[in-house]
Protein backbone atom coordinates (compact mmCIF):
# COMPACT_ATOMS: atom_id res chain seq x y z
CA UNK A 1 0.00 0.00 0.00
CA UNK A 2 1.34 3.44 -0.94
CA UNK A 3 0.96 6.28 1.51
CA UNK A 4 0.40 9.99 1.06
CA UNK A 5 3.55 12.08 0.84
CA UNK A 6 4.71 15.09 2.84
CA UNK A 7 2.96 18.29 1.77
CA UNK A 8 0.06 16.45 0.10
CA UNK A 9 -3.45 17.64 1.01
CA UNK A 10 -5.73 14.70 1.78
CA UNK A 11 -9.26 13.99 2.93
CA UNK A 12 -9.98 11.92 6.05
CA UNK A 13 -13.11 9.75 6.15
CA UNK A 14 -14.48 7.90 9.15
CA UNK A 15 -17.06 5.16 8.85
CA UNK A 16 -19.17 3.14 11.25
CA UNK A 17 -18.91 -0.64 11.67
CA UNK A 18 -21.89 -1.17 9.32
CA UNK A 19 -20.04 0.63 6.49
CA UNK A 20 -21.96 3.91 6.63
CA UNK A 21 -20.02 7.14 6.27
CA UNK A 22 -19.73 8.93 9.62
CA UNK A 23 -17.66 12.09 9.09
CA UNK A 24 -15.32 13.71 6.52
CA UNK A 25 -12.49 16.18 7.16
CA UNK A 26 -11.99 17.94 3.83
CA UNK A 27 -8.34 19.03 4.02
CA UNK A 28 -5.41 17.80 6.06
CA UNK A 29 -1.79 18.40 5.07
CA UNK A 30 0.40 15.32 5.38
CA UNK A 31 3.56 15.93 7.41
CA UNK A 32 4.71 12.29 7.47
CA UNK A 33 3.42 9.25 5.60
CA UNK A 34 4.96 5.83 6.18
CA UNK A 35 3.70 2.25 6.19
CA UNK A 36 3.05 2.59 9.94
CA UNK A 37 2.04 6.19 10.56
CA UNK A 38 0.44 9.21 8.93
CA UNK A 39 0.88 12.52 10.74
CA UNK A 40 -1.04 15.50 9.42
CA UNK A 41 -2.09 19.04 10.26
CA UNK A 42 -5.10 21.18 9.59
CA UNK A 43 -6.55 24.50 10.67
CA UNK A 44 -10.15 25.58 10.27
CA UNK A 45 -10.84 22.65 7.98
CA UNK A 46 -14.36 21.88 6.83
CA UNK A 47 -15.93 18.85 8.55
CA UNK A 48 -19.02 17.23 7.02
CA UNK A 49 -21.25 15.00 9.15
CA UNK A 50 -23.15 12.01 7.75
CA UNK A 51 -26.44 13.90 8.10
CA UNK A 52 -25.15 16.75 5.90
CA UNK A 53 -24.39 19.21 8.71
CA UNK A 54 -21.02 20.89 8.38
CA UNK A 55 -18.74 22.99 10.52
CA UNK A 56 -15.13 24.18 10.65
CA UNK A 57 -12.53 23.23 13.20
CA UNK A 58 -11.67 26.15 15.49
CA UNK A 59 -7.94 25.78 15.95
CA UNK A 60 -4.84 24.26 14.40
CA UNK A 61 -4.47 20.54 15.00
CA UNK A 62 -1.86 17.87 14.52
CA UNK A 63 -3.33 14.46 13.67
CA UNK A 64 -1.80 11.05 14.36
CA UNK A 65 -3.01 7.93 12.54
CA UNK A 66 -1.60 4.41 12.61
CA UNK A 67 -1.87 1.30 10.45
CA UNK A 68 -1.35 -0.80 13.57
CA UNK A 69 -3.03 0.94 16.53
CA UNK A 70 -6.78 0.87 17.08
CA UNK A 71 -6.91 4.59 17.86
CA UNK A 72 -6.08 7.94 16.34
CA UNK A 73 -5.21 11.18 18.08
CA UNK A 74 -6.08 14.80 17.31
CA UNK A 75 -3.84 17.31 19.11
CA UNK A 76 -5.71 20.63 19.24
CA UNK A 77 -3.53 23.69 19.78
CA UNK A 78 -5.42 26.21 21.93
CA UNK A 79 -4.44 29.37 23.80
CA UNK A 80 -4.46 27.59 27.17
CA UNK A 81 -2.55 24.50 26.03
CA UNK A 82 -2.83 21.35 23.97
CA UNK A 83 -6.00 19.29 24.19
CA UNK A 84 -6.09 15.78 22.76
CA UNK A 85 -9.12 14.03 21.34
CA UNK A 86 -8.48 10.33 20.92
CA UNK A 87 -10.82 8.19 18.81
CA UNK A 88 -10.95 4.44 19.28
CA UNK A 89 -11.12 3.15 15.74
CA UNK A 90 -9.69 0.68 13.30
CA UNK A 91 -6.17 1.04 11.94
CA UNK A 92 -6.18 3.34 8.91
CA UNK A 93 -6.16 2.51 5.24
CA UNK A 94 -5.22 4.77 2.34
CA UNK A 95 -6.71 4.31 -1.12
CA UNK A 96 -5.62 7.49 -2.96
CA UNK A 97 -9.14 8.91 -2.38
CA UNK A 98 -8.84 9.39 1.37
CA UNK A 99 -7.37 8.18 4.63
CA UNK A 100 -10.07 5.90 6.06
CA UNK A 101 -10.91 4.22 9.34
CA UNK A 102 -13.87 2.83 11.27
CA UNK A 103 -14.91 4.90 14.28
CA UNK A 104 -15.87 2.76 17.27
CA UNK A 105 -17.49 5.48 19.37
CA UNK A 106 -15.25 5.37 22.45
CA UNK A 107 -13.15 8.51 22.86
CA UNK A 108 -10.69 9.83 25.38
CA UNK A 109 -10.28 13.56 25.93
CA UNK A 110 -6.95 14.63 27.43
CA UNK A 111 -6.54 18.07 29.00
CA UNK A 112 -3.39 20.25 29.08
CA UNK A 113 -2.71 19.22 32.69
CA UNK A 114 -2.55 15.52 31.66
CA UNK A 115 -5.89 14.51 33.16
CA UNK A 116 -8.19 12.52 30.89
CA UNK A 117 -11.75 11.30 30.59
CA UNK A 118 -13.24 8.30 28.75
CA UNK A 119 -16.24 9.46 26.70
CA UNK A 120 -19.21 7.95 24.85
CA UNK A 121 -19.43 4.59 26.65
CA UNK A 122 -23.24 4.65 26.23
CA UNK A 123 -22.91 5.24 22.47
CA UNK A 124 -20.42 2.37 22.27
CA UNK A 125 -22.79 0.00 24.13
CA UNK A 126 -25.69 0.97 21.86
CA UNK A 127 -23.73 0.48 18.62
CA UNK A 128 -22.13 -2.71 19.93
CA UNK A 129 -25.61 -4.22 20.25
CA UNK A 130 -27.12 -2.57 17.17
CA UNK A 131 -24.24 -3.46 14.81
CA UNK A 132 -23.32 -6.76 16.47
CA UNK A 133 -19.68 -6.05 17.25
CA UNK A 134 -17.96 -9.44 17.59
CA UNK A 135 -16.53 -10.36 21.01
CA UNK A 136 -13.02 -10.36 19.49
CA UNK A 137 -13.49 -6.73 18.34
CA UNK A 138 -14.81 -5.74 21.78
CA UNK A 139 -11.68 -7.26 23.36
CA UNK A 140 -9.37 -5.48 20.89
CA UNK A 141 -11.00 -2.11 21.59
CA UNK A 142 -10.91 -2.56 25.38
CA UNK A 143 -7.24 -3.55 25.14
CA UNK A 144 -6.46 -0.45 23.07
CA UNK A 145 -8.26 1.81 25.56
CA UNK A 146 -5.74 0.51 28.12
CA UNK A 147 -2.86 0.99 25.69
CA UNK A 148 -3.96 4.54 24.91
CA UNK A 149 -4.17 5.37 28.62
CA UNK A 150 -0.65 3.96 29.01
CA UNK A 151 0.53 6.26 26.18
CA UNK A 152 -1.10 9.23 27.95
CA UNK A 153 0.41 8.44 31.35
CA UNK A 154 3.87 7.77 29.90
CA UNK A 155 3.83 10.69 27.43
CA UNK A 156 4.33 8.35 24.49
CA UNK A 157 3.89 9.34 20.83
CA UNK A 158 1.74 12.46 20.39
CA UNK A 159 1.63 12.95 24.19
CA UNK A 160 5.40 13.53 24.29
CA UNK A 161 5.95 17.20 25.21
CA UNK A 162 7.91 18.01 22.01
CA UNK A 163 5.68 16.16 19.53
CA UNK A 164 3.16 18.90 18.73
CA UNK A 165 5.77 21.68 18.57
CA UNK A 166 7.92 19.68 16.13
CA UNK A 167 5.09 18.87 13.74
CA UNK A 168 3.35 22.24 14.02
CA UNK A 169 6.63 23.98 13.10
CA UNK A 170 6.93 21.80 9.99
CA UNK A 171 3.29 22.53 9.10
CA UNK A 172 3.86 26.30 9.34
CA UNK A 173 6.98 25.99 7.18
CA UNK A 174 5.22 23.91 4.50
CA UNK A 175 2.17 26.17 4.59
CA UNK A 176 4.34 29.21 3.73
CA UNK A 177 5.84 27.50 0.68
Automatic annotation (TrEMBL):
Keywords: Hydrolase, Magnesium, Metal-binding
Residue ranges occupied by any DUF402 domain in the UniProt entry: 18-156
Listed SUPFAM superfamilies: FomD-like (SSF159234)
InterPro entries, alphabetized: DUF402, FomD-like_sf, Ntdp-like, SA1684
Entries under PANTHER family matching the protein: PTHR39159, UPF0374 PROTEIN YGAC
Protein's UniProt name: DUF402 domain-containing protein
Protein species of origin: Scopulibacillus cellulosilyticus
